[in-house]
Amino acid sequence: MQPIIDLHSHTIASDGTLTPTGLIHHAHVQGVNVLAVTDHDVTDGLQEAFTAAAPLGIQIVPGVEISVTWNNVTVHILGLNVDPESEVLQQGLDKTREFREWRGKEIARRLESAGVKGAYEGAMAYSHGKILSRTHFAQFLADHGYARNVRQVFKNFLTHNKPGYVPGQWAALADAVSWIRAAGGQAVIAHPARYKISGNKLRRLISEFKECGGVGIEVVSGSHSTNDMHQMAGYAATYELLASAGSDYHGPKNHWIDLGRLPPLPPRCVPIWQDWPINAGP
Ligand code: AMP
Ligand code: MN
Ligand code: MN
Ligand code: MN
């Protein structure tokens, strides 16, 4: 049997709702053999993930999901098999988190002007003292009745032209890819079908990403439709990029798809794990 591989997941180190240990235990229940832990702009969850995974025979791929601003669009770049000890990577992530901290205060300031009181402290209470994400603001606002659920908070408060929206000033694409490479990792465009950009612009993104040294594209994503998946498989072939697969799991109440439920890569794809030593599996 093929091992079950999932190369995109989150913990409470960023905006997931499970601890690294909780995530690994759930991955085990779901039969996952190889799991990349890819928190937003931070690698703090990795050590605990390795410790929890060892006795269960789950292979952890150390990863990170870096926030990038490319032509005014926020794009997420995954680093897979990064060395979390890399100074270049950690300095880059530090810089990215500095913007995140400033942005958190700015989101709260703007929400305050729109009549939402105590959003900063409120969101912080959901962030476990780690990085502050829009997800934490959304959880606070949803739980305090400002909208029906997290998704509605995003729609009504936290996206373009809404009161709590703050434009991204994240890492440059070339920088994010170079940090990942400096850490010995492989750079992958996360959930490429989720960006609200034209086909032309997406092709430009992919081609610039490749010129910067990026090697992969998430063909299978929890957030992709079957149609998206086939389209991205086409781009992977055209641009000679390796194909990745990840659920983007954030926890039991906040996910596109459960762990261990991803469809297989379409046949023409070259899996990003083709040269990896995969030692887990039934
Ligand atoms: P941030 O990096 O702090 O801007 O937060 C982005 C995160 O918010 C993403 O990684 C998703 O987990 C979450 N997110 C973005 N858009 C939505 C949405 N429409 N509904 C629910 N969660 C979302
Ligand atoms: Mn997230
Ligand atoms: Mn993402
Ligand atoms: Mn993600």
Can you offer a commentary on this structure?
The protein has 282 residues and is α/β, with parallel strands linked by helices. 38% of the residues lie in helices and 15% in strands. The chain has 9 helices and 7 strands; from the N terminus they run βαβαββαααααβαβαβ. α1 packs parallel to α2. One manganese (II) ion is lined by residues 65, 76, 190-191.
Helix content: 25-40%
Instruction: Tell me the β content.
Output: 5-15%
Mean of all residue-level pLDDT scores: 97
| Count of beta strands | 7
Poorly predicted runs are none
The major pleated sheet works out as: 7 strands, mixed
Describe the global form: globular
Count of helical regions: 9
Summarize the structure.
This protein is of the alpha/beta class and 282 residues long. Helices cover 38% and strands 15% of the residues. β3 and β4 form a beta hairpin.
Keywords:
binds adenosine monophosphate, binds manganese (II) ion, 15% strand, alpha/beta, 9 helices, 38% helix, 282 residues, single chain
